[in-house]
Design a protein that fits this description.
Layout (H helix, E strand, L loop, with lengths): L5 H10 L9 H16 L5 H11 L3 H10 L9 H11 L21 E7 L6 H9 L7 E7 L6 H6 L7 E5 L6 H9 L6 E4 L5 E2 L3 H12 L3 E10 L4 E5 L4 E4 L16 E4 L18 H10 L2 E14 L4 H4 L8 H16 L5 H19 L4 H18 L8 H11 L3 H8 L6
Parallel strand pairs: 1-2, 1-4, 2-3, 6-10
Antiparallel strand pairs: 4-9, 5-10, 6-7, 6-9, 8-10
Helix pairs in contact: 1-3, 2-3, 2-4, 3-4, 4-16, 5-14, 10-12, 10-13, 13-14, 13-15, 13-16, 15-16
C-alpha cells in the first residue's frame, strides 16, 4: 500500500503500536476495540490515530467517544439567547475599576500574610496562632481583614491588635473573600505575599520552608503540600508535590499545581497590577492560574506539607456546582480575558494551556450539577469565547488537547466526558 495513503499511514501507526501489558485490562480492551472499528471504516482514518494513541495513554473513554461519534453534532448557535438565559439565572458580576498600587515595600518585612475572615469566631484564633507561632528568623506582617462579621469574630481579633506586626482592618462591601484579600493587599508591605483562609492552619516550619525554597531557587511562586483537616478535627489525605522547578513559557506543567491562593508564597510584584475579582462570590481564585502563574518566570513546588485545609462540605466550593452561582465560572473568564488584554501578557504556550483548561475541564466541573440546558448554554458560550480568544490552532500539552478538540468541534458530549476527569477540591 502506498505509504502516502492516509489509510495506509493509519494502519502502519496502529500496527506498530504495542499495547503495554502494564495498562489496565479495560484500557487494553479499548485499544483493541478502536482497532476493530478502524478496520471496519475504510476512509478518514485520522480518527484511528486519536483513538489508539489516546487509549494507550489511558484516555480510552475519550478516544472511543471521538472514534464512534466522529465529533458529534455541534449544538445550534444561540449566543445571544444563551447570554440572556444565563444572565437571568446568574447575572454577570460587576468588574472593578482601576487596580490601585500596592503600598511601598518595607525592607524590614519579609512576608505579608493576608487572612480574610467572615463569621470565623470558632476557628480564627487557631489560624492566627499557627501563623504567629512560626519558627522563622524573618519579620512577618499579619493582616486580618474582617468582612463585617455578625458573630464574635471582632472580639477575638481584638486580642491580637497589640501584637507586633498585626494589622486589623475591615472590608464591608462587597462582602467576599476576594474583596477582603484585595483590602489586605492595600496594607501589604512585605517582599513576599501569602494567603491563609480563616478556618485553616499553617503547619510548623511552613514559612521557613517556602521562603528558603524561594530564595534558593529564585522563584516567583512556591507551592507546598497540604493535608485535609475535617470539621471534627481529624486529619485526612495528604497532597504532596514533587520537588520541581517550572521555568519559562514552555513549562505548562506548572498548571498541574493547584490554583487555590493558599499553600503558596508569591513575589509581591505578581500582584502589582492584579487583584481578585471582588464581586465574585466563588471561583475568584481563577486569577492564580490565568494571570498570576503566567507572569511568574519560575514556579517551584516543594514536597514538604505546609498547610492544613479545612474541608467544609457546606462551603462555597463544595456547593457551587448545584447552584446558579456556578455560572460565575464562565463569567469570570470573560473578565479575566479583559484583564489579560489590559496587562498585555503574551499569548504563548502558558496562555493557550490555561485558557483551554479553564474553558473545558474547569467550567464543566463547576456547572455539572446544573440542568443540561444550562450546561449546554455555558458550553456554547465557552466555544464562542475560545474561538475569539484563540482563533488559530496551536500546540498544546497532552492533557489539554481533548478539551481543545471539544471546544473547536463544538462537541458537547466530548466536553462533558473530558470535564469529568477534573475534580474540584
Amino acid at each position: 500500500m502506498n505509504e502516502r495513503n492516509p489509510l495506509g499511514q493509519a494502519r502502519e501507526a496502529y500496527e506498530s503500536l504495542r499495547i503495554p501489558d502494564e495498562l489496565p485490562d479495560a484500557v487494553q480492551d479499548a485499544v483493541r476495540q478502536a482497532r476493530r472499528e478502524a478496520r471496519r471504516e475504510r476512509s478518514g482514518n485520522h480518527f484511528l490515530r486519536y483513538a489508539v494513541c489516546a487509549a494507550a495513554c489511558g484516555h480510552a473513554d475519550l478516544a472511543l467517544y471521538h472514534l464512534l461519534h466522529r465529533g458529534g453534532a455541534p449544538l445550534p448557535d444561540s449566543t445571544q439567547a444563551d447570554r440572556a438565559a444565563l444572565t437571568a439565572l446568574c447575572p454577570k458580576p460587576a468588574a472593578e475599576g482601576e487596580c490601585p498600587p500596592l503600598p511601598p515595600q518595607d525592607p524590614a518585612v519579609t512576608l505579608s500574610v493576608i487572612v480574610p475572615v467572615y463569621n470565623g469566631e470558632a476557628t480564627i484564633a487557631a489560624c492566627l496562632d499557627s501563623i504567629l507561632q512560626q519558627d522563622t528568623d524573618c519579620t512577618v506582617q499579619l493582616i486580618v481583614v474582617d468582612s463585617d462579621s455578625a458573630d464574635g469574630t471582632a472580639a477575638v481579633l481584638e486580642r491580637y491588635r497589640a501584637q507586633p506586626g498585626v494589622v486589623l482592618c475591615n472590608c464591608i462591601a462587597p462582602r467576599s473573600a476576594a474583596a477582603a484579600r484585595n483590602e489586605g493587599l492595600r496594607h501589604a508591605v512585605g517582599r513576599w505575599l501569602m494567603f491563609v483562609d480563616s478556618d485553616d492552619l499553617l503547619l510548623p516550619g511552613a514559612i521557613r520552608t517556602l521562603l528558603e525554597a524561594a530564595q534558593r531557587l529564585d522563584a516567583d511562586v512556591v507551592q507546598g503540600g497540604w493535608q485535609y483537616l475535617y470539621t471534627d478535627g481529624s486529619y485526612g489525605p495528604v497532597q504532596c508535590y514533587p520537588a520541581a522547578v517550572y521555568i519559562g513559557n514552555a513549562a505548562p506543567e506548572r498548571f498541574e499545581l493547584p490554583g487555590m491562593p493558599w499553600g503558596k508564597i508569591y513575589r509581591r510584584e505578581l500582584f502589582a497590577q492584579v487583584r481578585f475579582p471582588a464581586y465574585y462570590t466563588c471561583f475568584e481564585d481563577t486569577i492564580i492560574h490565568f494571570l498570576v502563574f503566567r507572569q511568574a518566570k519560575a514556579v517551584v513546588s516543594v514536597p514538604e506539607v505546609v498547610y492544613l485545609w479545612r474541608k467544609n462540605p457546606k462551603g462555597l466550593t463544595a456547593t457551587s456546582q448545584h447552584r446558579p452561582a456556578a455560572v460565575q465560572s464562565y463569567w469570570i473568564m470573560e473578565q479575566l480575558l479583559a484583564q489579560d488584554a489590559a496587562l498585555g501578557l503574551p499569548h504563548d504556550a502558558l496562555y493557550r494551556c490555561s485558557l483551554t483548561l479553564q474553558l473545558s475541564a474547569f467550567c464543566y466541573a463547576t456547572i455539572s450539577g446544573l440542568p443540561q440546558e444550562t450546561q449546554q448554554a455555558v458550553f456554547r458560550l465557552c466555544c464562542a469565547l475560545y474561538a475569539k480568544a484563540l482563533p488559530q490552532e496551536n500546540a498544546l500539552p497532552r492533557r489539554a488537547r481533548w478539551g481543545a478538540r471539544a471546544l473547536r468541534q463544538q462537541d458537547f458530549g466530548l466536553w462533558c466526558r473530558y470535564g469529568r476527569r477534573f475534580q474540584l477540591l
